[in-house]
Amino acid sequence: PLPIAALMVPIAQIALGIDTASGAFAPFGQPVVFLILASLFLAEALRKHGLTRRLALYAIVFSKGHFRRLLLGLMVITAALSMFVLNTATAAVLIPVAITIAQRISRPDAAQRALAVLILGIVYSASIGAIATIMGSGENAIASGLLAQVTDFGFLDWMMIGLPIVIVLIPLSWFLLTQAIRVPDLRIDTGPAQDEIARMGALKGPEREIIVVLGIAVLLWVTGSALEEWLRLPSTLLNSAVVAIGAVALLSIEEVIDWNDLRGVNWGVFFVIGAGLTLGDALNKTGASDWFASLLAPTLQGLPYVYILAILVGSAFVLTQFMNNVTLGAILAPILVTLGEASGIPPVQLVLPTVMTLALAYMLPSASARMTLAAVTGAVERKDMMRAGLIVGVPGALFVVVFFYALAQFGLL
User: Against a cut of 0.90, is the pTM above it?
Assistant: First the structure.
Protein backbone atom coordinates (compact mmCIF):
# COMPACT_ATOMS: atom_id res chain seq x y z
CA PRO A 1 0.00 0.00 0.00
CA LEU A 2 1.17 3.50 -0.86
CA PRO A 3 1.19 4.79 2.78
CA ILE A 4 3.39 1.84 3.88
CA ALA A 5 5.68 2.39 0.89
CA ALA A 6 5.83 6.06 1.91
CA LEU A 7 7.07 5.12 5.39
CA MET A 8 9.92 3.18 3.75
CA VAL A 9 11.34 6.42 2.31
CA PRO A 10 12.81 7.80 5.56
CA ILE A 11 13.95 4.29 6.54
CA ALA A 12 15.81 3.94 3.25
CA GLN A 13 17.31 7.40 3.77
CA ILE A 14 18.68 6.32 7.16
CA ALA A 15 19.90 2.93 5.86
CA LEU A 16 21.80 4.62 3.01
CA GLY A 17 23.51 6.98 5.45
CA ILE A 18 21.88 10.07 3.96
CA ASP A 19 20.54 11.30 7.29
CA THR A 20 19.86 10.37 10.90
CA ALA A 21 16.44 9.27 12.15
CA SER A 22 15.58 12.72 13.49
CA GLY A 23 16.53 14.36 10.19
CA ALA A 24 14.82 11.78 7.98
CA PHE A 25 11.50 12.04 9.84
CA ALA A 26 11.64 15.83 10.33
CA PRO A 27 9.73 16.64 7.08
CA PHE A 28 6.71 14.75 8.48
CA GLY A 29 6.37 17.62 10.95
CA GLN A 30 6.21 20.41 8.36
CA PRO A 31 3.13 22.67 8.68
CA VAL A 32 1.82 21.77 5.22
CA VAL A 33 1.42 18.12 6.30
CA PHE A 34 -0.86 19.20 9.14
CA LEU A 35 -2.75 21.51 6.78
CA ILE A 36 -3.69 18.51 4.65
CA LEU A 37 -4.57 16.45 7.71
CA ALA A 38 -6.85 19.24 8.97
CA SER A 39 -8.56 19.41 5.56
CA LEU A 40 -9.42 15.70 5.93
CA PHE A 41 -10.94 16.42 9.32
CA LEU A 42 -13.00 19.28 7.85
CA ALA A 43 -14.18 16.92 5.08
CA GLU A 44 -15.38 14.49 7.75
CA ALA A 45 -17.33 17.29 9.47
CA LEU A 46 -19.04 18.16 6.16
CA ARG A 47 -19.88 14.51 5.53
CA LYS A 48 -21.12 13.75 9.04
CA HIS A 49 -23.64 16.58 9.06
CA GLY A 50 -24.77 16.12 5.45
CA LEU A 51 -23.69 19.50 4.11
CA THR A 52 -22.22 18.02 0.94
CA ARG A 53 -25.43 16.07 0.26
CA ARG A 54 -27.51 19.18 0.93
CA LEU A 55 -25.46 21.13 -1.64
CA ALA A 56 -25.93 18.33 -4.18
CA LEU A 57 -29.70 18.34 -3.58
CA TYR A 58 -29.77 22.10 -4.19
CA ALA A 59 -27.90 21.49 -7.49
CA ILE A 60 -30.54 18.93 -8.53
CA VAL A 61 -33.40 21.35 -7.80
CA PHE A 62 -31.61 24.28 -9.45
CA SER A 63 -31.09 22.24 -12.63
CA LYS A 64 -34.89 21.86 -13.01
CA GLY A 65 -34.25 18.32 -14.20
CA HIS A 66 -31.93 19.23 -17.11
CA PHE A 67 -29.09 16.70 -17.03
CA ARG A 68 -26.37 18.94 -18.44
CA ARG A 69 -27.23 21.77 -16.08
CA LEU A 70 -27.19 19.29 -13.20
CA LEU A 71 -23.76 18.01 -14.27
CA LEU A 72 -22.39 21.56 -14.35
CA GLY A 73 -23.87 22.31 -10.92
CA LEU A 74 -22.29 19.20 -9.39
CA MET A 75 -18.94 20.03 -10.98
CA VAL A 76 -19.00 23.59 -9.61
CA ILE A 77 -19.90 22.37 -6.10
CA THR A 78 -17.20 19.67 -6.22
CA ALA A 79 -14.56 22.15 -7.39
CA ALA A 80 -15.50 24.70 -4.72
CA LEU A 81 -15.29 22.09 -1.95
CA SER A 82 -12.01 20.59 -3.17
CA MET A 83 -10.32 23.99 -2.92
CA PHE A 84 -10.40 23.67 0.86
CA VAL A 85 -10.93 19.95 1.42
CA LEU A 86 -8.59 17.30 0.00
CA ASN A 87 -9.76 16.44 -3.53
CA THR A 88 -9.99 12.68 -3.00
CA ALA A 89 -12.13 13.14 0.12
CA THR A 90 -14.45 15.48 -1.80
CA ALA A 91 -14.86 12.99 -4.66
CA ALA A 92 -15.51 10.12 -2.22
CA VAL A 93 -18.29 12.08 -0.53
CA LEU A 94 -20.05 13.11 -3.76
CA ILE A 95 -19.81 9.94 -5.89
CA PRO A 96 -22.67 8.29 -3.93
CA VAL A 97 -24.83 11.31 -4.83
CA ALA A 98 -24.16 10.60 -8.52
CA ILE A 99 -25.24 6.98 -8.04
CA THR A 100 -28.47 8.11 -6.37
CA ILE A 101 -29.24 10.48 -9.25
CA ALA A 102 -28.65 7.78 -11.88
CA GLN A 103 -31.01 5.41 -10.07
CA ARG A 104 -33.85 7.85 -10.78
CA ILE A 105 -33.43 7.47 -14.55
CA SER A 106 -35.88 4.90 -15.86
CA ARG A 107 -34.04 3.77 -19.02
CA PRO A 108 -31.15 1.44 -18.00
CA ASP A 109 -28.89 2.27 -20.98
CA ALA A 110 -29.31 6.03 -20.49
CA ALA A 111 -28.86 5.66 -16.72
CA GLN A 112 -25.56 3.81 -17.22
CA ARG A 113 -24.11 6.50 -19.50
CA ALA A 114 -25.42 9.29 -17.28
CA LEU A 115 -23.77 7.68 -14.24
CA ALA A 116 -20.43 7.42 -16.07
CA VAL A 117 -20.59 11.10 -17.02
CA LEU A 118 -21.61 12.20 -13.51
CA ILE A 119 -18.81 10.23 -11.85
CA LEU A 120 -16.19 11.48 -14.31
CA GLY A 121 -17.50 15.03 -13.88
CA ILE A 122 -17.09 14.74 -10.11
CA VAL A 123 -13.57 13.28 -10.20
CA TYR A 124 -12.41 15.75 -12.87
CA SER A 125 -13.77 18.77 -11.00
CA ALA A 126 -12.32 17.51 -7.69
CA SER A 127 -8.90 17.41 -9.35
CA ILE A 128 -9.38 20.80 -11.04
CA GLY A 129 -10.75 22.56 -7.95
CA ALA A 130 -7.74 21.39 -5.95
CA ILE A 131 -5.47 23.41 -8.26
CA ALA A 132 -6.68 26.59 -6.55
CA THR A 133 -5.00 26.04 -3.15
CA ILE A 134 -2.06 24.31 -1.52
CA MET A 135 -4.42 22.19 0.62
CA GLY A 136 -6.43 20.82 -2.30
CA SER A 137 -4.05 17.97 -3.15
CA GLY A 138 -0.97 16.17 -1.93
CA GLU A 139 1.27 17.27 -4.79
CA ASN A 140 0.32 20.92 -4.19
CA ALA A 141 1.25 20.56 -0.53
CA ILE A 142 4.64 19.03 -1.38
CA ALA A 143 5.44 21.67 -4.02
CA SER A 144 4.35 24.50 -1.74
CA GLY A 145 6.49 23.18 1.11
CA LEU A 146 9.56 23.04 -1.14
CA LEU A 147 8.94 26.48 -2.66
CA ALA A 148 8.54 28.00 0.80
CA GLN A 149 12.11 26.87 1.57
CA VAL A 150 13.63 28.85 -1.31
CA THR A 151 11.28 31.81 -1.79
CA ASP A 152 8.56 33.78 -0.05
CA PHE A 153 5.56 31.88 -1.39
CA GLY A 154 2.42 31.19 0.61
CA PHE A 155 -1.28 30.31 0.51
CA LEU A 156 -2.49 33.52 -1.15
CA ASP A 157 0.32 33.51 -3.76
CA TRP A 158 -0.72 30.03 -4.87
CA MET A 159 -4.43 30.85 -4.88
CA MET A 160 -4.01 33.98 -7.03
CA ILE A 161 -2.52 31.81 -9.77
CA GLY A 162 -4.54 28.63 -9.28
CA LEU A 163 -8.04 30.10 -8.96
CA PRO A 164 -8.20 31.63 -12.50
CA ILE A 165 -7.19 28.25 -13.93
CA VAL A 166 -10.06 26.58 -12.06
CA ILE A 167 -12.55 29.21 -13.24
CA VAL A 168 -11.67 28.46 -16.88
CA LEU A 169 -11.16 24.70 -16.70
CA ILE A 170 -14.45 23.81 -14.98
CA PRO A 171 -16.79 25.03 -17.78
CA LEU A 172 -14.30 23.90 -20.44
CA SER A 173 -14.11 20.40 -18.95
CA TRP A 174 -17.91 20.26 -18.56
CA PHE A 175 -18.39 21.03 -22.25
CA LEU A 176 -15.70 18.61 -23.43
CA LEU A 177 -16.97 15.81 -21.19
CA THR A 178 -20.50 16.11 -22.60
CA GLN A 179 -19.00 15.82 -26.09
CA ALA A 180 -16.73 12.89 -25.19
CA ILE A 181 -19.54 10.75 -23.76
CA ARG A 182 -22.85 11.53 -25.39
CA VAL A 183 -25.89 11.23 -23.17
CA PRO A 184 -29.46 11.56 -24.48
CA ASP A 185 -31.33 14.70 -23.54
CA LEU A 186 -32.48 13.50 -20.14
CA ARG A 187 -34.94 15.00 -17.73
CA ILE A 188 -34.61 13.99 -14.11
CA ASP A 189 -37.47 14.13 -11.65
CA THR A 190 -36.50 16.75 -9.06
CA GLY A 191 -39.46 15.91 -6.80
CA PRO A 192 -37.55 13.47 -4.53
CA ALA A 193 -34.75 16.04 -4.08
CA GLN A 194 -37.27 18.75 -3.16
CA ASP A 195 -38.96 16.37 -0.72
CA GLU A 196 -35.63 15.51 0.91
CA ILE A 197 -34.70 19.19 1.25
CA ALA A 198 -38.08 19.84 2.87
CA ARG A 199 -37.52 16.87 5.18
CA MET A 200 -34.06 18.15 6.16
CA GLY A 201 -35.52 21.58 6.92
CA ALA A 202 -33.48 24.72 7.51
CA LEU A 203 -29.78 24.60 8.35
CA LYS A 204 -29.29 23.12 11.80
CA GLY A 205 -26.94 24.41 14.48
CA PRO A 206 -23.94 22.19 13.63
CA GLU A 207 -24.32 22.91 9.91
CA ARG A 208 -24.32 26.66 10.55
CA GLU A 209 -21.30 26.34 12.81
CA ILE A 210 -19.34 24.42 10.16
CA ILE A 211 -20.15 27.07 7.54
CA VAL A 212 -19.15 29.93 9.86
CA VAL A 213 -15.93 28.28 11.02
CA LEU A 214 -14.95 27.30 7.48
CA GLY A 215 -15.73 30.84 6.26
CA ILE A 216 -13.53 32.39 8.95
CA ALA A 217 -10.77 29.88 8.19
CA VAL A 218 -10.85 30.79 4.47
CA LEU A 219 -10.68 34.48 5.35
CA LEU A 220 -7.66 33.90 7.60
CA TRP A 221 -5.96 31.69 5.01
CA VAL A 222 -6.17 34.56 2.54
CA THR A 223 -5.40 37.48 4.87
CA GLY A 224 -3.41 35.81 7.67
CA SER A 225 0.05 37.23 6.97
CA ALA A 226 -1.31 40.77 6.55
CA LEU A 227 -3.29 40.51 9.80
CA GLU A 228 -0.22 39.27 11.66
CA GLU A 229 1.71 42.36 10.61
CA TRP A 230 -1.19 44.77 11.21
CA LEU A 231 -2.09 43.40 14.66
CA ARG A 232 1.57 42.72 15.61
CA LEU A 233 0.84 39.09 16.36
CA PRO A 234 3.56 36.45 16.85
CA SER A 235 5.07 35.36 13.56
CA THR A 236 3.20 32.50 11.81
CA LEU A 237 0.37 32.52 14.39
CA LEU A 238 -2.03 32.79 11.45
CA ASN A 239 -0.12 30.34 9.27
CA SER A 240 -2.56 28.34 7.13
CA ALA A 241 -1.81 25.09 9.00
CA VAL A 242 -2.33 26.75 12.40
CA VAL A 243 -5.64 28.22 11.22
CA ALA A 244 -6.81 24.84 9.86
CA ILE A 245 -5.95 22.95 13.06
CA GLY A 246 -7.58 25.75 15.07
CA ALA A 247 -10.77 25.40 13.01
CA VAL A 248 -10.88 21.65 13.70
CA ALA A 249 -10.23 22.24 17.41
CA LEU A 250 -13.08 24.77 17.56
CA LEU A 251 -15.49 22.33 15.91
CA SER A 252 -14.42 19.72 18.43
CA ILE A 253 -14.94 22.08 21.39
CA GLU A 254 -18.42 22.87 20.03
CA GLU A 255 -19.02 19.08 19.80
CA VAL A 256 -19.72 19.29 16.07
CA ILE A 257 -17.16 16.50 15.60
CA ASP A 258 -15.42 14.20 18.05
CA TRP A 259 -12.36 11.99 17.99
CA ASN A 260 -14.34 8.93 16.90
CA ASP A 261 -15.30 10.84 13.73
CA LEU A 262 -11.69 11.73 12.99
CA ARG A 263 -10.22 8.28 13.55
CA GLY A 264 -11.78 7.06 10.30
CA VAL A 265 -10.19 9.58 7.92
CA ASN A 266 -7.55 8.52 5.41
CA TRP A 267 -4.45 8.91 7.59
CA GLY A 268 -2.37 7.39 4.80
CA VAL A 269 -2.31 10.78 3.06
CA PHE A 270 -0.36 12.13 6.05
CA PHE A 271 2.39 9.55 5.43
CA VAL A 272 2.43 10.02 1.65
CA ILE A 273 2.92 13.79 1.84
CA GLY A 274 5.51 13.51 4.60
CA ALA A 275 7.40 10.95 2.51
CA GLY A 276 7.20 13.24 -0.52
CA LEU A 277 8.87 16.03 1.44
CA THR A 278 11.43 13.55 2.80
CA LEU A 279 12.18 12.37 -0.73
CA GLY A 280 12.74 15.96 -1.85
CA ASP A 281 15.03 16.47 1.14
CA ALA A 282 17.01 13.34 0.22
CA LEU A 283 17.36 14.42 -3.41
CA ASN A 284 18.85 17.71 -2.23
CA LYS A 285 21.14 16.24 0.46
CA THR A 286 22.63 13.61 -1.87
CA GLY A 287 23.10 16.06 -4.73
CA ALA A 288 20.74 14.04 -6.94
CA SER A 289 18.67 17.15 -7.67
CA ASP A 290 21.82 18.99 -8.76
CA TRP A 291 22.75 16.04 -10.97
CA PHE A 292 19.33 15.96 -12.65
CA ALA A 293 19.44 19.75 -13.02
CA SER A 294 22.90 19.59 -14.63
CA LEU A 295 21.53 17.12 -17.19
CA LEU A 296 18.46 19.19 -17.98
CA ALA A 297 19.86 22.71 -17.73
CA PRO A 298 21.87 22.60 -21.02
CA THR A 299 18.72 21.47 -22.86
CA LEU A 300 16.58 24.29 -21.46
CA GLN A 301 19.26 26.98 -21.32
CA GLY A 302 18.50 29.72 -23.80
CA LEU A 303 15.15 28.30 -24.86
CA PRO A 304 12.20 30.70 -24.89
CA TYR A 305 9.98 30.24 -21.83
CA VAL A 306 7.08 29.05 -23.96
CA TYR A 307 9.18 26.10 -25.20
CA ILE A 308 10.24 25.24 -21.65
CA LEU A 309 6.59 25.35 -20.60
CA ALA A 310 5.55 23.08 -23.44
CA ILE A 311 8.25 20.52 -22.56
CA LEU A 312 7.47 20.51 -18.82
CA VAL A 313 3.68 20.53 -19.13
CA GLY A 314 3.69 17.95 -21.94
CA SER A 315 6.00 15.63 -20.01
CA ALA A 316 3.99 16.00 -16.80
CA PHE A 317 0.71 15.34 -18.63
CA VAL A 318 2.00 12.12 -20.22
CA LEU A 319 3.75 10.80 -17.09
CA THR A 320 0.83 11.48 -14.75
CA GLN A 321 -1.46 9.24 -16.79
CA PHE A 322 0.67 6.24 -15.78
CA MET A 323 1.99 7.22 -12.34
CA ASN A 324 0.21 8.42 -9.20
CA ASN A 325 0.25 12.21 -9.32
CA VAL A 326 1.26 12.71 -5.68
CA THR A 327 4.28 10.44 -6.12
CA LEU A 328 5.21 12.13 -9.38
CA GLY A 329 4.90 15.57 -7.77
CA ALA A 330 7.22 14.45 -4.95
CA ILE A 331 9.86 13.45 -7.52
CA LEU A 332 9.56 16.38 -9.93
CA ALA A 333 9.13 19.33 -7.54
CA PRO A 334 12.59 19.24 -5.87
CA ILE A 335 14.31 18.66 -9.23
CA LEU A 336 12.50 21.65 -10.77
CA VAL A 337 13.34 23.88 -7.80
CA THR A 338 17.04 23.05 -8.24
CA LEU A 339 16.77 23.36 -12.02
CA GLY A 340 15.26 26.83 -11.69
CA GLU A 341 18.05 27.98 -9.38
CA ALA A 342 20.71 26.46 -11.67
CA SER A 343 19.32 27.95 -14.89
CA GLY A 344 18.38 31.36 -13.51
CA ILE A 345 14.63 30.82 -13.97
CA PRO A 346 12.47 31.55 -10.90
CA PRO A 347 11.53 28.09 -9.51
CA VAL A 348 7.88 29.17 -9.32
CA GLN A 349 7.78 29.43 -13.14
CA LEU A 350 8.81 25.78 -13.46
CA VAL A 351 7.18 24.13 -10.45
CA LEU A 352 3.66 25.59 -10.60
CA PRO A 353 2.73 24.78 -14.22
CA THR A 354 4.20 21.28 -13.90
CA VAL A 355 2.49 20.43 -10.60
CA MET A 356 -0.83 21.95 -11.67
CA THR A 357 -0.74 19.83 -14.83
CA LEU A 358 -0.54 16.71 -12.65
CA ALA A 359 -4.18 17.38 -11.73
CA LEU A 360 -5.13 16.42 -15.31
CA ALA A 361 -4.53 12.70 -14.66
CA TYR A 362 -7.75 11.42 -16.17
CA MET A 363 -6.99 8.43 -18.42
CA LEU A 364 -6.18 5.47 -16.15
CA PRO A 365 -7.29 4.25 -12.70
CA SER A 366 -3.66 4.34 -11.51
CA ALA A 367 -3.25 8.02 -12.36
CA SER A 368 -4.76 9.30 -9.12
CA ALA A 369 -6.85 8.23 -6.14
CA ARG A 370 -9.87 9.98 -7.72
CA MET A 371 -9.62 7.91 -10.88
CA THR A 372 -9.27 4.78 -8.75
CA LEU A 373 -12.53 5.71 -7.02
CA ALA A 374 -14.19 6.15 -10.42
CA ALA A 375 -12.91 2.77 -11.59
CA VAL A 376 -14.02 0.78 -8.54
CA THR A 377 -17.63 1.91 -8.98
CA GLY A 378 -17.70 -0.20 -12.14
CA ALA A 379 -19.75 2.52 -13.84
CA VAL A 380 -17.02 3.80 -16.18
CA GLU A 381 -15.69 1.48 -18.87
CA ARG A 382 -11.95 1.60 -19.46
CA LYS A 383 -12.29 2.78 -23.06
CA ASP A 384 -14.62 5.60 -22.00
CA MET A 385 -12.20 6.60 -19.25
CA MET A 386 -9.27 6.78 -21.66
CA ARG A 387 -11.18 8.53 -24.44
CA ALA A 388 -12.79 11.13 -22.16
CA GLY A 389 -9.52 11.63 -20.29
CA LEU A 390 -7.72 12.45 -23.51
CA ILE A 391 -10.44 14.72 -24.90
CA VAL A 392 -10.79 16.67 -21.64
CA GLY A 393 -7.16 16.57 -20.52
CA VAL A 394 -5.25 17.74 -23.61
CA PRO A 395 -7.09 21.11 -23.99
CA GLY A 396 -6.64 21.61 -20.23
CA ALA A 397 -2.87 21.12 -20.55
CA LEU A 398 -2.74 23.51 -23.52
CA PHE A 399 -4.57 26.13 -21.46
CA VAL A 400 -2.01 25.75 -18.65
CA VAL A 401 0.79 26.48 -21.15
CA VAL A 402 -0.99 29.56 -22.54
CA PHE A 403 -1.94 30.84 -19.08
CA PHE A 404 1.54 30.64 -17.58
CA TYR A 405 3.16 32.08 -20.70
CA ALA A 406 0.77 35.04 -20.49
CA LEU A 407 1.60 35.52 -16.78
CA ALA A 408 5.31 35.53 -17.56
CA GLN A 409 4.89 37.95 -20.48
CA PHE A 410 3.04 40.44 -18.28
CA GLY A 411 5.49 40.06 -15.41
CA LEU A 412 2.91 38.50 -13.08
CA LEU A 413 4.91 35.36 -12.30
Answer: no
